[in-house]
Design a protein that fits this description.
heterodimer; A: mainly alpha; two-stranded antiparallel sheet; 20 helices; 2 strands; B: mainly alpha; Methane Monooxygenase Hydroxylase, Chain G, domain 1; 3 helices; flat
Chain lengths: ~475, ~120
């Protein structure tokens, strides 16, 4: 490996090294403040290292990893989102009587796994990244071991993720059995020569769709989502909803675009059906929930359906629209679960819709941030969520996928109902619980500031998206 | 397109699994006596609950065994190709061992290596 390879790999190396440094610091001095500070410093250095790495791209580092602008853009998203999760975890963990420091080691390793995932262009690194991410998420979901519901979430995630990984592996094996290669560029040349029509390749891709679908939590592979979202600690849910799904969507784009299997009729058909089912089922089931975490879980199923519409639209425009949508969605979910995290007391998370009744009159700042997040999820103008939906519909119109666009628009209207239901509760003037009935914890300074920054970022993206759009445009050069 | 090996393979899988379950269902004996559903303990009546609690250290031993076992598996495969991999391979193996040593130091400081619970440090 040359020194240029190392520079290109710097973000991954820094993330891995930080995890070990934090682990060592725990071994010799157990301090929550120290562990979280080291984590933040490491993440900041990893983010800074994107710039030297950008000087070396695109670069194939070993046959397994490719560092290009696409990977770097997603590195940036992953690192920034993990940074936000760490900031909101600090206050959350302070309220819980657990070993707090190891949380950050797990979070860093999960970020590393996600980064490996988005930079892989080989089945081996794809699977390794996925497993690094999944295994840490099992532990993170069950981190608050005194809560039975958290253990249930971890166990469910473990069993179902292991089963879906088996499907993914078997799919990869079938593709490999026919084509004799596991690297995406070589698969592309094989598929272009007509290999994609082979029955085994089709069967392999079908199995892989199961693996993708599970991680993205799209219908019919979504059954774990509400339980894991509800059971896992709120910062972990934020991580699962943003980083884990974002990384999986990135590898979905990379694999299907680079290998050329996106253009297969079968792929488009199956993802079209999944997208429609997710949009309808996610939005309809969210209507019947009274638990904010579960509402957000079903809404995330619907949002991944919207993302798949961008995937279906295809081309440079579709991929760029999907990436923009994902960026907006990551900021939004981080903010929404961040509000839940700062409001959660030690015993349970603030997940009941009654916890939010009249919140505006008790904690105006938090309620405003939450409202902005919910508006963005609903796709109301001036927020990034609106622009994301706008670009997705525009990309879809470009490719004339009218059925999908119609479902997207119709289900967005349904979605409005349950988002506004929470907003109505936030601004309710009657039956506001007193501090004695539902005590509100003090908002930790770091968590509060993070939420404010996230809300500002969301509006900034919604009003002036030029900068990020430019970055996304150049990032897409990686997969075209 | 030559599909018959795949069909044969799939059929063999189904036949093997099916015959294992099916044959034992057909040929197996069926009793329904007073003690049929009791666990067999060498003829002695079983006693106590199955949910006995064991010390965590036995589990820790098993975990450590798996960790070091895997380490040696990786190092063996490196050792076979050590000459071909040259210094790059050497440094990579060194990093691998270094990470594992770091994990070991962490476990040692945590008190996971202490057999007696009294010496285990208070970690909270």
């Amino acid at each position: 490996m040359s020194s240029a390879d190392f520079v290109a790999l710097l973000p991954l190396i820094v993330l891995g090294a930080t995890a070990i440094v934090v682990m060592m610091s725990i071994a010799f001095r157990r301090s929550h403040a120290l562990a979280s500070t080291l984590t933040l410093v490491g993440l900041a250095v990893a983010f800074w290292s994107l710039w030297p790495a950008a000087g070396e791209v695109p670069r194939q580092v070993t046959p397994l990893l490719v560092i290009d602008r696409f990977a770097l853009y997603y590195f940036g998203l992953i690192i920034a989102a993990t940074f936000a999760v760490v900031l909101m975890s600090y206050g959350y963990l302070e309220r819980h009587d657990v070993r707090r420091e190891e949380f950050y080691v797990l979070l860093l390793v999960a970020a590393l796994g996600s980064a490996v995932l988005v930079s892989s262009d080989h089945f081996i690194s794809f699977f390794l990244g996925l497993e690094i991410l999944s295994v840490t998420l099992y532990a993170l979901s069950a981190y608050l071991t005194e809560r039975g519901i958290a253990l249930e979430a971890g166990m469910k995630y473990l069993v179902l993720a292991a089963a879906s990984a088996a499907f993914l592996l078997f799919g990869m094996a079938l593709v490999y059995a026919e084509t004799g290669t596991m690297s995406f560029p070589q698969l592309a040349s094989d598929f272009a020569a007509g290999g994609a029509a082979h029955l085994w390749v089709l069967a392999g891709i079908a199995f892989m769709v199961t693996g993708f679908g599970f991680k993205l939590a799209v219908v019919p592979f979504h059954l774990w989502t509400p339980d894991v979202y509800q059971g896992a600690p709120a910062p972990v849910t934020a991580f699962v909803a943003s980083v884990s799904k974002g990384a999986m969507f990135a590898i979905l784009l990379r694999f299907f675009y680079q290998s050329g299997s996106r253009d297969l009729h079968a792929t488009l058909l199956i993802f079209g059906i999944i997208a429609i089912a997710s949009m309808i089922a996610g939005n309809l089931m969210a209507l019947f929930q009274n638990n904010v975490k579960r509402i957000l879980a079903y809404s995330s199923i619907a949002h991944l359906g919207y993302l798949l519409v961008a995937f279906e639209a295809g081309g440079l425009f579709g991929a760029a629209a999907g990436t923009f949508y994902l960026t907006a969605y990551m900021i939004t979910t981080l903010g929404a679960f961040g509000v839940i995290a700062v409001l959660s007391a030690s015993g349970r998370d603030a997940e009941d819709i009654e916890d939010y009744r009249g919140l505006f009159w008790r904690r105006p700042g938090l309620a405003t941030v939450f409202t902005v997040m919910l508006f963005s999820l609903a796709g109301i103008p001036l927020t990034a969520g609106f622009l994301g939906k706008f670009y997705t519909v525009a990309a879809g119109t470009n490719s004339s996928i009218w059925v999908l666009i119609f479902v997207l628009v119709a289900t967005s209207v349904i979605g409005l109902f349950y988002y506004l239901r929470v907003v109505v509760a936030l601004f309710a003037t009657e039956h506001i619980p007193s501090d004695a009935e539902r005590p509100l914890p003090v908002v930790p300074a770091m968590g509060g500031v993070t939420l404010g920054v996230l809300a500002l970022a969301l509006i900034w993206l919604g009003v002036y998206p030029h900068v990020i759009l430019h970055a996304i445009q150049s990032a897409m050069s990686g997969i075209f | 397109m030559n599909l018959w090996p795949f069909v044969l393979y799939a059929a063999l899988v189904l036949i093997t699994a099916g015959s294992m379950i099916g044959l034992s269902a057909i040929l197996g004996e069926r009793h329904k006596e007073r003690f049929t559903n009791q666990p067999y303990e060498g003829g002695i009546l079983s006693e106590g609950t199955a949910r006995a609690r064991f010390s965590i250290k036995f589990y820790m031993m098993a975990m450590f065994f798996v960790v070091f076992d895997l380490e040696s598996v990786f190092l063996y495969s490196w050792a076979v190709a050590a000459r071909d991999l040259g210094w790059v391979g050497y440094w990579e193996a060194l990093i691998f061992i270094g990470v594992l040593v770091a994990a070991l130091v962490y476990l040692w400081r945590l008190g996971a290596l202490d057999w007696s619970p009294d010496t285990r440090r208070k970690t909270r």
